[in-house]
Structure formats: C-alpha cells, structure tokens
Amino acid sequence: MKIESVDLFYLSMPEVLDIGDGSQDALLVRVAAGGYVGWGECEASPLACIASFVTPMSHSACKPVSASVLGQSLNDVADIYRIGDLVRAQSQDVLQADHTLSGVDMALWDLLGQRLGEPAWKLLGYPRAYPKLPYASMLFGDTPQETLLKGRKARAAGYRAAKFGWGPIGLESAQADADQFVAAREGLGKDGILLIDIGTVWRADVEKAALRLPALQACRATWLEEPFVSGALTAYHSLSQRSGSVKLAGGEGSHNLYMAQHMIDYAGLGYIQIDAGRIGGLSVAKQVADYAHARGVTYVNHTFTSHLALSASLQPYAGLQEDTICEYPVELKSLAVDITENHLLPDSDGYLHAPDAPGLGMTVNPAKLRPYLKDVEIRIDGALLYRTPEL
Amino acid sequence: MKIESVDLFYLSMPEVLDIGDGSQDALLVRVAAGGYVGWGECEASPLACIASFVTPMSHSACKPVSASVLGQSLNDVADIYRIGDLVRAQSQDVLQADHTLSGVDMALWDLLGQRLGEPAWKLLGYPRAYPKLPYASMLFGDTPQETLLKGRKARAAGYRAAKFGWGPIGLESAQADADQFVAAREGLGKDGILLIDIGTVWRADVEKAALRLPALQACRATWLEEPFVSGALTAYHSLSQRSGSVKLAGGEGSHNLYMAQHMIDYAGLGYIQIDAGRIGGLSVAKQVADYAHARGVTYVNHTFTSHLALSASLQPYAGLQEDTICEYPVELKSLAVDITENHLLPDSDGYLHAPDAPGLGMTVNPAKLRPYLKDVEIRIDGALLYRTPEL
Q1: Residues in A 80-119 with any Cβ partner in B closer than 8 A
Q2: Edge-to-edge strand order for the sheet containing A25-33?
Q3: Which residues on adjacent β-strands are paired with residue A221?
Q4: Is A43 within 8 Å of chain B by CB?
Q5: What is the pLDDT of residues B215-235, one digit of tens each?
Q6: Does the beta carbon of B391 lie under 8 angstroms from any beta carbon of chain A?
Q7: CB-based contact, A308 to chain B, within 8 Å
C-alpha cells in the first residue's frame, strides 16, 4: 500500500474555557491507503500542528511533516517505524513536528491493524493484552467540599482509584492544598488508590513541593504527579529522595524517546506517564514502555481526551502485566465523547481492556463531528496551502 | 512601557534548496513599546511559529504565545524574564512555543536596551564584552576537492578557524569522510582550528561515529559536532569516553534550559552550542552560559542566519573571557545579509566583537526586506486570525 492522503481536522467545543481540561478541542488525523482508513489524534495545539504539516521547507532538516509521510509505502510494522524516523530526521528543526507525527503514527497503526486483521497491541509485539485498573481522572473542585463530592461520585460509580489534578491545587497555601487532599481521600474512601496531580505549577521549586509532603503522606497518596515541568530532572530527583511512601509520577510532556528516558534515568520516578498523542505515537510510546519495564519504573498512559486517544494510549503497554493502572478521563466534554461511536467501559470487575479488534478498535463517526469542525484556511502569497478537507 | 504590538514577518529566498543551509528563510519579529522598536529572529519554521503565536486556546496550559506577551509591562530586565516564564507556563503544551518565544525575547532585549541606552550584554549582567575568534562556518563541498578550495578560501580571507558540516558528510563510507577531513585540514592549513559538524545524521549510532575517530584525530579536529541528535545523552557520553583529543560539541537543538543542562551534565561535552533563536532567546541562553561556565564546559554560539541573529547569539556569553571562539557564517544567502544594514566584521586582529551599542546594536532596514516578504493569511471559519502586517 501507498499512503494516499493524510487529512487533519481541527475540532472544537463552541466555547473553550481557561481551565486544565484538554478535552475541549482536538486534532483528528485521517490516513488513507489501499482502501483502508486509519484514525489518530494529536494531543496538541491543532493550528500549530496543521502548520507544521504543510509549512514550506526551510532547509533540509526543516521540512513539513507531510514530506515524510505522503506517498510512503505502508505494508508492515517496519514501515511505520521507518516513517517516524524519516519525520524526525527531515523535520528535526520543526519543533511542533513530534506532536503532529503522534496523531499520524496512531492512524498508521490503526490502518495497518485493519489491513492485517490484528489489534495494534499485537502488531506492537505483545502476545496478549492484560486488563488495567482505570483511575477516574478529574480536576480538583474549586473548594474541598466540591472535591469531596467528586470523590464520592467516583466511588459510587465503582472506581477503586481516582486522580485529582489542576484547578486551585498548588497555587494557594500548603494548608489549602492539605484541605483538598483530605477531602479527596474522604470522598474516595479509605481503601481507594488516591493520585494527586499538580499540573507543573511549581515549575522546579522543590521546597514548594516538600512543604506538601506531610499532607500527601498523611492522606496516603500513591503518587504525586508533575510537581515540576518535564525535564526538571534535578528537582524531581531531589524531591524523590524526600517523598517516602509517596512516589513521583511524570513525563507526559516528553515529546521524544530521549526525554522519556531522561525522566526514567535521572528523575527518580516511580511512574512514567506517556501521552501517545505527544511523544510520537504508539511507536515511540512502546519503546518507552520497554525501557521503563527493564528499569523497574511503572508505565502509565496519559490521556485526557477521546476514547480514540484512550485506546491508542493503552496499546503501548497493554502486554505489560505488572503495570496495572491506567488513566481514564471521566469529565470529558461532548466533543471528546462524540469522536468515537464505541467507548471503552470498565468490565463488571472494574477493569479496562484494550480492544481485541483490528487496529485501535474504535469507530469514528464523521457525521457526528461536523458540528465541531473548524474551517481552517492557510494561504501564502494568495496560494492555498491548507484548507480543512471534507470530513 | 506596555508591549503594544508584536509583528511576525516570514521572509524567504525565491527558491529554497534541499540543503543544510538555514539562511534560506527567516522569521523576523518586531516588537513595539513606548515609542521604541525591537527586532528579533526565530531560528525555526516560520509558518509553524506564526501559528503558535495566534492559535486559539486549547486549554489553560495551551494558549497562544501572544496571550503572554501582548499588553505586558516592559520596564526592566525582570519583566523580560517574567514574560518568558509566563509563555512557558501558559503555552506549555504548544510545542512550537519555545522557538517562537526565542525571537520575541531577542526583540525585548533589543527594545529595552534602546530604552536604557545599554547593550544587551550589559543588561544581561556582564561588565564588559570580550572579543571572540570567529570560525568560518561552511557546508562541506560535495567532493574533497571542493572542500579543499573552501578551506583555502577561508584561510585566504584571514580566518584562523573553520567549521565544515552537513553536505555529504557521514552519509557515505568512513573512508569518504576521512578524505573530506584531510581536504578540510589541508585547505585550512596546519595551524588552523578545524571543526567538524556531522549534522546529527548518525542519530544515536555510536559505532558509526567511532569508526571516524582515527581520521578525526589524525587531522587534529578540535571538535566533533552533533554526531548525534540533541538528547541522545548515552550515545554522546559513550563516544566522549573514546574520542581522546577530539572533544564533542552539541546542544543546538535544545529548546529550553533543561535540555541544555542535560547535555552539559550527562553527555560528556567539551562545548555546548546554543542557538538563541531556539532555546527561548537571550534570557535562557544566558542561564545556560552561567551553568556551563560553572561546570567547565565551553559555551559557543550557534548561528547560521543573519547578523541580527549573530549579534543576539553573542550577547549571552559576551562577558565570558575564557570562552573564546564563535560561529560566524560565511555562506549566507542574500536574504540573511539583507536583514541588517550593518554587519559584524572581524577586526584587524581577526576578532569579532558584540556591538557596544544599545540593544543588539543592529539596524534592520524594512524597505530592503520587502522583496523577500511572504504574505501569510490564516483564517478560521472565515475570520482572519493572522495576516502579514505592514513591514
């Protein structure tokens, strides 16, 4: 097969709020080859990705992502890795390229899986997929009381694990944060797995983080996620020496294999969190999963958008039996819900399964998405460089 | 002062060739505040940067770069650092943002320098600027004979140091590369400082690099630059243990402080090369210079575009007396030459000086640039989001 077309669709809620909710817009990727269609999704700024896909060449290592994808052969798994390497070489100086490649790579696995009649996790090399315990991934309430109610709701819905993040956390006093932690624990119940996400607001300030450790330990948080930005290795490592029973989690900002490896090698993490929609797709995410597994660091998916992205995020570590928990967003905007016809739901034991179906196993319904579609037009010297295609 | 406007100009040669020459296009940044105008330049994909500047918000950590710059106060140096931090926080998930910020940050230093009547290097904290020995930065010839002639030309022009990079190097046999190294040394003469740049074509393949070490040592190369991509720390470190008299240089791909720190801490570099047009501008580049200096790693500018970018690249280490050499591109396309009215030329002793003039000390002549200007237009749902402004 040859890759005949790659179409990018910028979808958005009518109103995008200034909150840490990544499900308010999406960049959907559709790839066509040999009569098959594959779908992917970038966890990224849609317009910046579109520009990186169509931008004119600046020099030999600063080419549009499209230059390394359109017209390429796609017959086996090796072709997908080859295309990724080509994008990384030819678009090395287009910073946005890794995010754009991520959605394209997902769509390639989806498409090849359909052609070969195999789930992506099998093509990635896993003989079987193990169930994962989903944690309900939510924003903190604006008040502890609101957080308490959110925790209770998750527990009532049967979740044995929950993560609270963003919102007011980390921005006020250590006491205000402690009140939120206590509310989260109380809402979730004493046996639940409690995860706390700071959303990088302390940047690299170890003392701000250390001030919160007693409260995190007291409420028995399993992990403290992203106290610092991806790459602040020294800050992470220093905090990991003091965090005791609370393990550190991070890495979602990694946009290539090296960045994830550095987080694993030098940051003292207990959990490496990878967004397949940012790191270069399933191909790179699987390499991270292998690397982490060999070093005793637990791999966890990062996802906060559609179930297409959720399925993609599960594939790279579906076959790792010991890496048992997975992120499961429970506060999605309607756009993110509507991207797929089918949805991944916990089974009666509360476990989530990567689809045992060709490719990513998700059905995209274009008709349902048209109301969210943004019509993007880019012209240079009057010539049309990009126009949102027919969905 | 308040930042009143930030204008981005995509300039390009009529034809862009598929070679490793970054001077074929440019993204020029013009900032206006309080009656002053500052100029900067992104070393980046122009269209992707423009998109990242104007893209609609996706969520609270995925905002357009413009949201953190327009309307901000600009009265002192602290304001520039504050604006950079704001961009990094609010545009954390817009991957392209660091490249875009780089040109904006440059323009802010240029503007504030004019307002305060001080060169940027003085505002950055240096009491004086030391002369740098420029190395003639060139592409390898397609044949050893062509490289020999380029070397002779540089020597005849008075350069005591020269760098050859990209072109065919690293892509053919080790013997073919060795022939090129010998030709470069012969052309430059036996006393010249010879620098070799592989342009990352070996990605992370240590053995490919190791095969070339005997020839590099025999021709007395001072450094081997970018045998691998930025971030391939293990590969760099492993090679550094075997490279003997040939030191490793790298880091130009770093787009934030952390990435540069990792290269300094873990890659075994002798030289850290920073492009102020990629890493987040002068602000971050100066932080890298301080960090490298404290650890005995030599800082070198990376620049392959205009003399506006060249001046900007010198400022962050102008005051470091021991870091003596600087990149000086000698094969610029007319666009890159035309961006500034004045040019930085070596003095009679062959040394280059950061301008002792307000800001970056360079004069941009808009009229001369109009023939290179691309008219970019971006619309979403018919509404104009960006149109190339009046230059």
Answers
A1: 85, 88-89, 92-96, 98-99
A2: A3-12, A25-33, A36-42
A3: A194
A4: yes
A5: 999 999 999 999 999 999 999
A6: no
A7: no
- Candidate from B48, B166, B381 with C-beta closest to A374: B381
The C-alpha torsion from B379 through B385 and B387 to B389, rounded to 10°, is 170
Tell me the average pLDDT across A67-81.
98
Give how far Cα B226 sits from Cα of A310, B160, B196, Å. 37, 22, 9
Mean pLDDT of chain B: 97
3-state secondary structure of B139: strand
CATH class of B123-338: alpha beta
Q: Count how many pairs of residues, chain A against chain B, have C-beta atoms within 8 Å.
A: 211
Do the strands A271-274 and A247-250 form a parallel or antiparallel pair, or are they unpaired? Answer: parallel
Q: What percentage of chain A's residues is helix, strand, coil (to nearest 5)?
A: 35, 20, 40
Q: Tell me, what's the ipTM?
A: 0.96
CA distances from A203 to A8, A208, B254 (A): 32, 10, 18
Report residue A315 as tokens. 């594939």
Q: Considering CB atoms only, which of B19, B57, B96 is closest to A16?
A: B57
Residue B59, chain A, CB below 8 Å: the answer is yes
Please tell us whether the domain made up of A3-119+365-387 is placed in CATH 3.40.190.10: no
Tokens representing B370 are 């109009």
Q: What is the pTM of this model?
A: 0.97
Sequence-ordered alpha helix ranges (H) in chain A: 46-54, 77-90, 97-116, 120-123, 144-156, 174-188, 206-218, 233-240, 257-266, 282-294, 307-314, 334-338, 366-369
Four-CA torsion A137, A138, A140, A141, nearest 10 degrees? -150
Q: Which of B322, B305, B302, B331 has the alpha carbon at shortest distance from B314?
A: B302
Nearest residue on chain A to B21, alpha-carbon basis: A59
The Cα B264–Cα B266 span in angstroms is 6
Q: B residues 265-304 near A, CB within 8 Å?
A: 266, 278
Q: How many CA atoms lie within 13 A of B171 on its CB side?
A: 9
Q: In angstroms, how far is the first alpha carbon of chain B from the final one?
A: 22
Query: What pLDDT is stored for residue B269 in this prediction?
Result: 98
Taking an 8 Å cut-off on Cβ atoms, the answer to whether B232 and A258 are in contact is yes
Q: What is the pLDDT of residues A217-258, one digit of tens each?
A: 999 999 999 999 999 999 999 999 999 999 999 999 999 999
Q: Is B259 part of the contact surface with chain A (CB cutoff 8 Å)?
A: yes
Neighbours of A15 (CB within 10 A): 7
Please indicate whether, in this complex, the C-beta atoms of A55 and B43 are within 8 angstroms of each other: no
Spell out the domain ranges in chain B. Answer: 3-119+365-387, 123-338
Q: What is the pLDDT of residues B341-384, one digit of tens each?
A: 999 999 999 999 999 999 999 999 999 999 999 999 999 999 99
Q: Do B16 and A58 touch (CB under 8 A)?
A: yes
| CA atoms of A2 and A274, how far apart (whole Å) | 29
CB of A119 closer than 8 Å to CB of A101:
no
What is the C-alpha to C-alpha distance for residues A104 and A37, in angstroms, rounded to an integer? 12
Extract the tokens encoding A268.
């003292």
Handedness of CA A44, B89, B73, B356 (dihedral sign): negative
Q: Between the CA of residue B233 and those of A82, A259, B58, B203, what are the distances in Å?
A: 22, 10, 33, 11
Of B19, B21, B51, the CB nearest to A47: B51
Residue B263, chain A, CB below 8 Å: the answer is no
Cβ-based neighbours of A175, under 8 Å, separated by 6 or more: none
pLDDT range class, residue B60, cuts 50, 70, 90? very high
What residue type is B153 in one-letter code? K
Residues of chain A found within 8 Å of residue B201, distances taken between Cβ atoms: 89
